[in-house]
Design a protein that fits this description.
heterodimer; A: alpha/beta; Rossmann fold; six-stranded parallel beta sheet; 12 helices; elongated; B: mainly alpha; ABC transporter involved in vitamin B12 uptake, BtuC; two-stranded antiparallel sheet; 14 helices; 71% helix
């Protein structure tokens, strides 16, 4: 899968007229998530592939030891001291992380926010991530459609409250529910880790399974835990739409345990992020009139893609995301950058 | 008593490097502080040679800034260990103090100097609650602060809905990012001033002596006319205020008062809180404190973290290494005290 991803991305770059010769081999890039999390695992291969395809000095995936802003700050400081000169960062906090980003930028290292955004104003060239609000909104709509007629009581399992995306997801699900006459009976947040997710989701379903008709999970671990819980319960009355492409979630879709999942594009974020960082280091600048999107945090947002996967396309979901990555890369320079 | 240690039980005033006896000199070379200075020098040389950029101005600046917070957290714990107690709520109290400061600025519109004072006063108030409960119930502070850690943090999360205060005056971030002479963080200077004041408290004031006496032997202190309960409460209040300073430093670092700045329930502060004082030679039984040792211990831990990160040995090993260090430090201290006792040097 990773090899295929790499090949497709490389072909896309060639189509765009980009070659390794145009890249800077002194680009030493770091791809830094907010903490350990399976979502970001694809960044590692994306960095390696980008370094090989683009002729970069390095594009390394570096993980803070805990999901904590202080740990991320310390790691970034250390990487800057070691000579890393470009950073794709998932901000540990949309505002609290700006200070460190400004320090990095102050040393001439371009910064791009990946998978989550800094709150404007920030020195980040742009934010490359999933339109989390849109993804949650579309996922909720799909869930409500799958629930059919009758009562539509939804429980929402979501991620860390310190994640800038979480509130966007909560609001989006509420909006979709209101539009469709459904009710969000409970939001359980801060459970994007195995222990709290197992504890809270299983406890909730044990006590309230008969009071909900649908589950939407908008974070990786809760989606896995909820899908497994539904499989164990064997209750086909409760519908569910999850998020991301964990094997447990995809298998649950294929087996008919849950209805679908909203996939994201972490590999594309890592690859495109490394590509853009190298371009910025090579002297390109971000166009003033680039057609950025906006969300609650920033007006410089690039959607890395999201799509609904159900039983009909569970075997071919990767193609969808590859196509999205290729599409962004194909005209990236012309759309977003000024390169002399 | 040495320059480094403030011990109630010792009535002498021998300087560690003074000319009076070879005994005091040998005691200094056997002290935690000397060992820490040696370790800092050795590791600095190792990291300087083995890593790229360890002595770069930015890394020295970052090292100083991170040390400032870790030292302050260690001092906060130390001020309760003095009484023979523990403060597991150190992180929760610090975050609560910072959130109160942020709330006063953002929601009440109070000028930031007053808000900082308010935040620190709130930290002291939480300390008073801990101390008062310990004294009134007679339970060990381990139990009380374990409970209040959850209570303080839980109430804070409920009241703030886990939302950070992010619209703080630029003076916070400017202070957090400022550099004195190119590579010294003003946060480190604040910490060093506080450390000097604490050293003076324990060495040069009646109040400090009474705190140490209350920790060394509560019964004897009581018979000497010292109000032990009052001392315990004051030590907890001091701990709360110091935790508040540490959290406000993080606010300056991040430019926002964030509920998760010390992790879930403030637990992320516990390891640095214990490492500094224990490495520094503060007795967990109480009655003896080493401000310099705590400063050096916390600095060593921060330096090791920085060096290990730069060696790229894997971020996940850093935490394991720090835990191992705590264990080794306790065992070495036990061995050192046994040696001193055998040689009649203690």
């Amino acid at each position: 899968m990773k090899t295929l991803n790499r090949s497709v991305a490389a072909i896309a770059l060639l189509c765009a007229g980009v070659t390794a010769a145009g890249a800077a081999d002194d680009s030493t890039l770091a791809l830094v998530p907010g903490g350990p999390h399976p979502y970001f695992a694809a960044w590692e291969q994306a960095g390696l592939d980008a370094a090989a395809d683009l002729g970069l000095g390095e594009a390394t995936y570096k993980i803070p030891q805990k999901w904590e802003l202080a740990q991320q700050n310390q790691l970034l400081e250390s990487l800057l001291s070691q000579g890393y000169n470009g950073f794709l960062i998932f901000p540990g906090d949309p505002v609290g992380a700006v200070s460190t980003a400004e320090e990095l930028a102050g040393f001439g290292a371009p910064v791009i926010a990946g998978a989550g955004c800094y709150k404007d104003p920030s020195p980040a060239a742009f934010c490359l991530g999933t339109d989390t609000g849109k993804s949650a909104y579309l996922g909720a709509k799909e869930l409500i459609k799958a629930m059919g007629d009758g009562e539509k009581r939804i429980v929402h399992f979501t991620g860390f409250l310190v994640d800038p995306n979480t509130q966007l997801r909560i609001d989006a699900v509420v909006q979709a529910a209101e539009e469709e006459g459904a009710t969000v009976v409970q939001v359980i947040a801060d459970i994007d880790a195995p222990e709290p997710a197992e504890e809270k989701i299983n406890a909730y379903l044990a006590a309230h399974a008969d009071e909900v008709d649908g589950i939407i999970a908008t974070a990786w671990v809760p989606a896995v835990v909820a899908a497994n819980a539904l499989r164990r319960m064997g209750d086909d009355r409760i519908h569910m739409v999850g998020i991301d492409h964990d094997e447990a979630v995809i298998n649950a879709i294929k087996d008919g345990v849950i209805d679908g999942t909203m996939i994201q594009n972490p590999y594309g974020q890592g690859y495109i992020g490394a590509y853009a960082l190298d371009k910025l280091r090579s002297g390109c600048t971000v166009k003033d009139d680039a057609p950025f999107g906006s969300n609650a945090l920033t007006t410089k947002f690039i959607d890395s893609g999201t799509a609904y996967v159900d039983a009909s396309n569970a075997d071919s979901y990767l193609d969808t995301m590859r196509a999205e990555t290729d599409k962004i890369l194909a005209d990236f320079d012309a759309t977003y950058l000024n390169c002399e | 008593m040495t320059l480094q240690d403030a011990t109630y039980s010792s009535g002498t005033d021998d300087s560690p490097l003074g000319p009076r006896t070879g005994l005091s000199r040998s005691r200094f070379f056997l002290s935690n502080e000397f060992g820490l200075i040696l370790l800092i020098a050795i590791f600095a040389i190792i990291f300087g040679f083995a890593t790229k950029g360890f002595f770069s101005p930015f890394n020295l600046f970052a090292l100083g800034r991170n040390s400032a917070v870790n030292i302050m957290i260690g001092l906060s714990m130390m001020s309760v260990i003095v009484t023979g107690g523990l403060n597991l709520a150190v992180g929760a109290m610090g975050v609560c103090a910072a959130m109160v400061c942020g709330w006063m600025i953002e929601s009440l519109g109070i000028p930031w100097p007053l808000a900082i004072a308010g935040g620190l006063a709130f930290g002291a108030l939480l300390g008073w609650i801990n101390g008062w409960t310990v004294v009134r119930t007679g339970l060990h502070s381990f139990i009380i602060t374990l409970a209040t850690m959850s209570i303080f943090f839980g109430v804070m999360i409920f009241l703030t809905k886990a939302e950070a205060f992010r619209e703080l005056p630029p003076v916070f971030t400017e202070f957090g990012r400022a550099r004195v002479l190119g590579y010294v963080s003003p946060l480190l200077l604040v910490t060093l001033v506080v450390a000097v004041l604490l050293a003076w408290l324990y060495r040069g004031t009646v109040l400090g002596r009474e705190m140490l006496a209350a920790g060394a032997s509560p019964a004897a202190a009581e018979l000497s006319g010292i109000r032990v309960g009052r001392m315990v409460i004051l030590c907890h209040m001091l701990s709360g205020a110091l935790a508040g300073i540490a959290a406000l430093m993080l606010v300056a670092r991040n430019g926002a008062a964030i509920p998760s700045m010390a992790g879930q329930l403030g637990q992320d502060w516990l390891l640095p809180a214990f490492l500094g004082p224990v490495l520094g030679g503060t007795l967990l039984q109480g009655g003896k404190v080493s401000v310099l040792g705590t400063v050096l211990g916390a600095f060593l831990v921060t330096m090791l973290t920085s060096g290990l990160l730069m060696l790229q040995i894997g971020a996940f090993w850093v935490q394991s290494f720090l835990g191992l260090m705590l264990l080794v430090a306790v065992l070495l201290d036990k061995a050192r005290r046994s040696y001193l006792a055998r040689r009649n040097l203690a």
